[in-house]
Amino acid sequence: MYIKKEFRGQGLARGLFQELLRQVRAQLGLEQINIAVSAGNAAARGLYSSLGFQLYGCEPRALKVGDTYIDEEQMVLRLV
Which residue segment(s) compose the domain that 11 sits in? Predict the structure, then answer.
């Protein structure tokens, strides 16, 4: 998910994720959700943590943008 700078700080990402989680929890048999976040994105990681996601791993150099490598942190939300 990405929120443009001019719209950040208004709770849009939280609202979108809360609605997503509401719909996901209605799905029978779904036990967990896995997401990945860029290691340097503290705001996103904070949001996901506040929604119950827990860090479980890191994939070094998961992304390459130009000549720069970016690590990704894996997070999980267990539903059962």
Answer: 5-78
**Looking at residue 48, which CATH number applies to its domain?**
3.40.630.30
Domain count, the chain: 1
Tens of pLDDT along 37-68? 999 999 999 999 999 999 999 999 999 999 99
How far, in Å, CA of 11 to CA of 15, rounded? 6
For tokens 């942190």, name the residue.
73
Q: Of 8, 79, 19, which is closest to residue 46 (Cα–Cα)?
A: 8
Q: How far apart are alpha carbons 39 and 7 in whole angstroms?
A: 22
User: Cβ of 17: how many Cβ atoms within 10 Å?
Assistant: 18
